[in-house]
Structure formats: structure tokens, C-alpha cells
């Protein structure tokens, strides 16, 4: 074809595929097939799809030597032509008109329960046009103008022959049989491994016992050689008796040393426990003293506050009495004022009474009334101050009582800790005593056994 002729390829949607619009692609240059990214978006004139089963660089499509070629570029889920997979990055597949192309495989997301379909479409080509590339219309206009010279083949259904189905079932049965045989072989291998491990354990124990017996035989043979060289049976029996007596003396010494060690250990534990108890008692005694001193101080403060409250109550009573007296005086002055009002009324009617006397009485009444109000206000302020002081003292008393309760609770917890330490000390002493008794019994049994053996040997010697 001429160099200015554009080769167009149509890729149309087929059933059971991920949804996409039909594409019309110019294949004069290699066309990349893959998944869309934030830089490369799907359009009607490229082979980029928003499909999750595709790789970013899935395959490549190009036109060369009047042929259309397709190559897989190391994709994850593969590329298929007419249901046959292309060998990755090795084989370039020649395409023909009506071929069914599949990019990727269907993937099921079990966590999200979502099925991701692959890209399936039919290929239609060649679609040639003599329009230069720079004057070439957009793909949607080309689809309206250009009609394909070949018939459109739809591959919505994939037909499988009965022979292929029979062959597939045969392969499945053979695979199941192989799986069963492999499981049986695996169980037999596991059983054999378990048996080998048991045999290894038995052989190891037998070898240990054999080594012990061989060493024992060697020692007995050496003792026999020494006995045959040194003398007869009488000398051997005497040596045995001497060795038994030495053994008896050693056991007695060991018993005494063991008893002494146990007694020293017991005494040391007792001393250590007593020291711990003394330290705990001292600490608790100091804490008790501090708590008692704090308690006494709190009691003294409470008593002082109580006396202060009583004094405030007395002062409040005195202030109330003064207020009552002032109110009585105020009532008397009011009576006087009423009397002066009456006099003024009379003076208005009687001309014989001079005006100066009336004015003097009225002025004196006003001054007395002003003094009474000032005294009343002062007494009210004093009462309010005493009430506020009484409220603050009550709050302080409540705080002291809560502190006293917390101190008593802490004292009670310390007493409980002392009891727990005493019980732990007693249990430790009992366990040490039990260990001492058990060791004594064991030593007594060994001594009795050695005494019995020495007496038996002496009796045998006397019989001989």
C-alpha cells in the first residue's frame, strides 16, 4: 500500500466482556494495549481500557508487511486469540479478519464478592482510506463514512465439541486419580517417618544402655583383676567391711553436715523473715505515728473551728439583739416624727406657736433617722461577713473530715498488709520445716541401710 494510506482496525465489543465502546484504531504505528492510568485515558481511537484484570503494558498491536501482528508483553493474565493463549514475549501472532481477541481472564474477588471480567472483542480489518493523516476526520466521523468491506462476525458464544468434552472429563478423572494416589503416598511417607523417628529413639536409648553396661563391665573387670592380684576372699571381705564402715562414717558426717546446713538455712530464713517483719513493723509504726499526729492536729483544728463557730454564733446573737434595739429606737423616732408632723399640722392652724421650734424638731428627727439607717446598714454588713466566715469554716471542716476518713482507710490497708506478711512468713517457715523433716527421713533411711549392710557382712565373716 502507499505510504499515505491509513490502515484502520475496528475492535468491537462482544458478550461476557468488560463494558467498553467500540474502537477504531490507526495501526500505521504500534498501538499499546493496557490498563488506563492517570496519564493515559481510554478513548475511541486507542486500546486503553478501565479493566482491573489488564496490565498497564499488556500487549502491542502493529501493522507490518501487509499483515497485522499481536504480541503479549509479559502480562499477568495473558492474551488469547480465538481462545488460544499467546506465548508471553516470545510469539508474535498474525491476526486475520474476524479473529476473537481476549485480554486477561475473569477474576473473582472473594473478599468483596465482585467479579472482574476481561476484555473480549472481535477484530475487523482492513479498513483503508486515502485521506492524509493530517486531514483525517475524527474516529466518530470515520465510523459514519467508512463501511467495512467484509461481513461482521460476532463471537458471543464459544462452541466446544463433544470430543473435547469427553477428553476434558478424561483428563479430570486422571487428575483426581493422581491426587488420590499422591495423598495415599503422602500418608504412607508420614507413617514411615513416624516409625523411623520411633526406631531412632529406641536405638538411641539402647545405645545409651549398652554404653552404660559396657562401662559397668569394664569397672567390674578391673575390680576383679585387683582382687585376684591382692589376695584371697578373707582379705577382700575385710576390705569390704572396712569400706562399709568408712561409708557409714561418711554418711554420718554427711548427715550431720546436712542437718547443720539445713538448720543454718532455716535460722537464716527465720532471721531474714524477722528482719523483714521488724522493718515492716517499724515503717508501719512510723506511719501510724504520723497518721495519729495528723489526726490529732485535725481534731485540734476541728475543735478550734467549732469554738470559732460558737463565738460567731454569739456575735450573731449580739448583732441581732443590737438590730432589734435599733429597730425599737427607729420605731420610737418614727413615733416622734409622727408627733412632729402632728405638731406641724397644729402649728399651721395655730399662729401662737413659733415656726423656729417646729423647724428644730423636724431637723432633729431627720438627723436621728439618718443615724439609725447608717447603723442598720453597718450591722447588716457585719452579719453578712459573719455568715460568709461560717460557711467557709463549714467547708474546711468537711475537707478535714474527708482527709481523716482517707487516712483511716490507708491505716486499715496497712494493717491488712501486715497480716499478709505474717501469713506468708508462717507458710515459708512450715515449708522449710517440712523439707528438713524429709531430708532427715532420707538420711536416716540411708544410715539404716548402711548399718544393715555392715552387720550382715560382719555376721557373714563370723560364720566363715
UniProtKB/TrEMBL annotation:
InterPro entries: Cent_Immune-Sig_Mod, FHA_dom, SMAD_FHA_dom_sf. PROSITE patterns: FHA_DOMAIN. The keyword Coiled coil applies. It comes from the Eukaryota. Residues 263-336, 362-417 form a coiled coil. The keyword Metal-binding does not apply. One of its GO terms (biological process) is negative regulation of hippo signaling. Residues 31-86 form the FHA domain. Gene3D superfamilies: 2.60.200.20. SMART domains: FHA. Keywords: Coiled coil. This is FHA domain-containing protein. The lineage of its organism: Eukaryota, Metazoa, Placozoa, Uniplacotomia, Trichoplacea.
Amino acid at each position: 500500500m502507499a505510504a499515505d494510506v491509513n490502515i484502520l482496525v475496528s475492535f468491537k465489543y462482544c458478550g461476557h466482556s468488560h463494558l467498553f465502546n467500540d474502537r477504531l484504531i490507526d495501526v500505521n504505528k504500534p498501538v499499546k494495549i493496557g490498563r488506563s492510568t492517570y496519564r493515559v485515558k481510554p478513548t475511541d481511537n486507542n486500546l486503553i481500557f478501565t479493566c482491573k484484570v489488564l496490565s498497564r503494558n499488556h500487549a502491542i498491536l502493529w501493522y507490518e508487511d501487509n499483515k497485522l501482528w499481536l504480541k503479549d508483553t509479559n502480562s499477568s493474565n495473558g492474551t488469547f486469540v480465538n481462545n488460544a493463549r499467546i506465548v508471553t514475549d516470545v510469539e508474535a501472532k498474525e491476526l486475520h479478519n474476524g479473529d476473537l481477541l481476549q485480554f486477561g481472564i475473569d477474576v473473582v474477588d472473594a473478599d468483596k464478592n465482585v467479579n472482574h471480567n476481561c476484555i473480549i472483542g472481535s477484530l475487523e480489518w482492513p479498513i483503508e482510506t486515502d485521506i492524509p493523516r493530517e486531514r483525517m476526520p475524527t474516529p466518530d466521523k470515520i465510523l459514519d463514512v467508512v463501511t467495512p468491506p467484509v461481513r461482521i462476525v460476532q463471537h458471543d458464544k464459544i462452541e466446544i465439541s463433544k470430543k473435547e468434552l469427553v477428553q476434558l472429563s478424561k483428563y479430570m478423572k486422571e487428575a483426581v486419580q493422581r491426587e488420590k494416589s499422591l495423598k495415599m503416598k503422602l500418608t504412607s511417607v508420614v507413617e514411615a517417618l513416624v516409625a523411623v523417628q520411633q526406631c531412632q529413639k529406641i536405638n538411641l536409648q539402647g545405645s545409651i544402655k549398652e554404653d552404660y553396661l559396657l562401662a559397668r563391665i569394664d569397672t567390674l573387670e578391673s575390680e576383679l583383676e585387683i582382687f585376684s592380684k591382692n589376695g584371697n576372699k578373707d582379705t577382700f571381705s575385710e576390705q569390704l567391711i572396712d569400706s562399709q564402715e568408712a561409708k557409714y562414717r561418711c554418711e554420718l558426717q554427711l548427715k550431720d553436715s546436712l542437718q547443720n546446713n539445713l538448720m543454718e538455712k532455716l535460722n537464716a530464713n527465720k532471721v531474714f523473715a524477722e528482719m523483714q517483719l521488724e522493718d515492716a513493723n517499724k515503717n508501719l509504726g512510723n506511719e501510724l505515728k504520723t497518721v495519729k499526729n495528723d489526726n490529732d492536729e485535725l481534731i485540734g483544728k476541728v475543735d478550734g473551728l467549732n469554738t470559732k463557730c460558737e463565738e460567731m454564733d454569739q456575735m450573731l446573737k449580739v448583732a441581732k439583739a443590737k438590730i432589734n434595739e435599733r429597730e425599737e429606737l427607729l420605731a420610737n423616732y418614727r413615733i416622734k416624727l409622727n408627733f412632729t408632723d402632728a405638731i406641724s399640722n397644729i402649728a399651721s392652724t395655730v399662729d401662737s406657736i413659733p415656726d423656729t421650734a417646729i423647724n428644730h424638731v423636724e431637723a432633729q428627727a431627720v438627723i436621728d433617722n439618718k443615724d439609725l439607717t447608717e447603723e442598720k446598714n453597718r450591722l447588716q454588713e457585719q452579719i453578712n461577713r459573719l455568715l460568709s466566715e461560717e460557711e467557709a469554716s463549714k467547708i474546711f471542716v468537711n475537707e478535714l473530715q474527708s482527709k481523716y476518713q482517707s487516712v483511716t482507710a490507708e491505716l486499715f490497708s496497712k494493717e491488712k498488709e501486715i497480716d499478709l506478711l505474717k501469713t506468708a512468713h508462717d507458710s515459708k517457715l512450715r515449708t522449710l520445716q517440712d523439707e528438713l523433716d524429709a531430708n532427715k527421713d532420707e538420711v536416716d533411711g540411708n544410715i539404716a541401710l548402711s548399718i544393715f549392710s555392715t552387720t550382715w557382712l560382719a555376721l557373714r565373716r563370723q560364720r566363715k
